[in-house]
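Can anyone check this?
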Amino acid sequence: MKRRRYFGFDRNIFYTGLNSFFTDTSTKMIYSVMPLFLMSIGASKTQISLIEGIAESTASIMKALSGFWSDKIGKNKPFMIIGYATTALITPLYAFVINPIQVLVLRFIERLGKGVRTAPRDSLISASIKKNETGKSFGFHKMMDNSGAILGPLLASSILFFRPGDFKTIFILAAIPAIIGVFIIIFLIKEKKKQEKVTRSKVAFKHLPKNYYIFLFIIGVFTLGNSTDSLMLIRLSETGINESFVPLIYMIFNTVSVLLAVQIGKLSDKIGRVKLIILGFLIYSFVYLMFGAFNNVTVFILMFVLYGVYSALTDTCQKALVSDLVNKDMKGTGFGLYHAVLGIMLLPASAIGGYLYDNVSPSATFYFGSSLSLIAAIMMILFMVKLKNDKSKSMENETV
């Protein structure tokens, strides 16, 4: 039976995107003001970085485990419900915290929920994709995700403009779209049937291909210099700009990413993912270089535009590449390890970034990130050459 499509996409891909739109509206309402809120209750730059790093990294092991177990039992939806419901329940509790430690606890629990849901969600998307539409489909999900990331900061900025310093209202209202996202999963997303249990019994990390692990290593190097975006927002706030405009400017990069995500996904289906990932790393290197070299609102606004280009390039193409490299029975495991690497590396990245910001200079943080992203771009170029050589050898063997 032919599955119904919505705007040219499988129903699961469409509704997963809609779920991400509402969830990211919620999370970005909070994230866009969290650095300002933490500073208002006495947190230092290092503490802000560590809160984000610890929360992401300590929950990252769950990303690998949830992906692995979703492959084992052949189901993704239960993990998605638990993960998104956790975010919805935690969100309004930020309104009642009075010190940075309480924020850390809530962030850890909320990120634990993200760890449970992320890999199974990407696995569900991958299993629902029509042939030759991998980049397009992940591009659509990125577009919907970042559409929420536009609305969230816009709502937060509006609240701060009319009610300066009223973070409590932002946190409470942010729970509404998060709850809507949970209902979408429960009632509108259908479980995608996987292979039979005999196949699932073969799920093991050792069955993932060598090129996949090489790719993960490169991503790890890049992410070590990819400290929390909170430091970019702090750098922006230190120019003297009104705090109500900080989430509004943060919204710019999400807007650019929305406009480009689907088209970049389609382009990656035609010319390959690796070239676009390399371009993304180079743009990131330039953006961080400019954040280190300047302290100017106009420059930073332009850099947030480029940061949106980087986001659309890397997030879309990296997930599509993982889907390409991993066989269909290991999608959850593959996406789980990928997201785990991103999360685990965020702790040292944020610790280094925060330390450099407080104890050396703000510029040192961004120069460090710029340098590592340039190294990662060079490594991706070498990886691209390896993939081409592997493909040539495979074709020669088939000919023989």
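Reply from J.R.: I decoded it. The chain has 17 helices and two strands.
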